[in-house]
Amino acid sequence: xxxxxxxxxxxxxxxPKDVEQTVDDxxxxxxxxxxxxxxxxxxxxxxxxxxxxxxxxxxxxxxQPIVDNQxxxxxxxxxxxxxYKTIWIYRFYDISTPSFGSSSVVRQEMxxxxxxxxDLIQNVKETTGANKIYLVAHSMGGLVCxxxxxxxYPETKDAAINHIDKFFTYGTPHGGIVFDIGxxxxxxxxxxxxxxxxxxxxxxxxxxxxxxxxxxxxQLPKDFKSxxxxxxxDAFLPNRVFCIIGTNAHDYEEGFGLSRKTVGVKxxxxxxxxxxxxxxxxxxxxxxxxGGRYGMVNSEEGYQNLQRFLFGDIQVKLSLSNVELTDLDNxxxxxxxxxxxxxxPIPIYEQAIAHYCPITQELTRTDKPxxxxxxxxxxxxxxxxxxxxxxxxRLALHSFTKQEKNWLQDxxxxxxxxxxxYLITDIAELNSTxxxxxxxxxxxxxxxxxxxxxxxxxxxxFVAYVSLPERGQKVFGTNAAxxxxxxxWQ
Length: 490
Fold this sequence. Notes:
Elements: E1 6-9, H1 16-23, E2 34-39, E3 45-50, H2 53-61, E4 64-66, H3 73-77, E5 86-89, H4 110-128, E6 133-138, H5 140-155, E7 164-170, H6 185-193, H7 203-210, E8 241-246, H8 258-263, E9 282-286, H9 300-311, E10 314-321, E11 331-341, E12 349-351, E13 370-377, E14 388-401, E15 419-430, E16 433-440, E17 449-450, E18 461-467, H10 470-476, E19 481-488
Helix pairs in contact: 4-5
């Protein structure tokens, strides 16, 4: 476990009114909590209080907020030796609001905002004595951080790893914002008019502020591919990045629902699911919207992934190996996953067909394991106070008939999984060595079968394979197994 100062970077304020509402808040919105969770057992609305990520970092980990990062002396005096446990808000909209005496309401360009973040990081390091910081960003804030990491630091022959330890994003449009309607016309209009710098979410501006030495007038290279926007390259280690991906478009109410209607259902209401992550980064899919009552920032799901990524001691990677699905000419397959940790009332990860994000294409590859999820665990916070972390992974494989085949003659029901089960695992760590026990819920209720490390294990890394139950082997192949890799995380 390592505590470092945290800098929060908020997202886009669309209108001048939004800017004013933002600057009126000392914490730029990161102090917003929520009181709703879906329904109880009687289908009635249920209260569930989440205090906000900022307050939870204070109560759970002893962090203290620095309200005004330009006048820190009096705030710092009362913290004594807890300087590393400080939260800083990057208030980049303050400079362009009349309410703070600005003579101009012209917004800063992304490169300028990124340079301001660089200066704040340096100020935080000098003030606290920390050698690095954690970056936590929502929406456009993640693009500000990426501009700093990928362009601003490299242009000065510096490297982000010298200043930033971990980078966490909520609903950041790492691949830009695209629309499900209009056949590109809406994007072209947005990027041409540049209203309130909205072209920052288009490919040309993104290329300019993410590419070292690129100029604001540069055009896209002829061989440019949109997927490269989600590649952080060698500017930062993807394993030190975590991306929260929202899958609930329905509850995003901005613009009277216009946003979710134009972006489409395969989104969080603003950012499409397949655009919300950095290639190779850790990620979690949660059924939350981009903002609002059921927003991802003010959610228990988002916070639990945040605190485990920042302060976890153990990294657990699960994948499905040796998959051999049959009849691929006539059927296609989709795998649902759901991860729950003992002691938490909500899942921390969920890929579901109904949420438009099942595992699909990876199932057809036989050259490498199918990634399921990566979790970060905090043994000292275990529900039973015994330093043993228990999680349950639900797997459900569905088969669907391809359209060219006569579905009336098919032998299976598309809406019924071919196989589903829960893998329940206990993981314990002692003196940098790991022990793991498991069970399939269809066989047992408690994980009592010990996992033995394989020859793939090395110093500090535990690797084991869990064979699928008989029914699972019939659909995935007799050699299919869940690969479990446990290692230290810091």
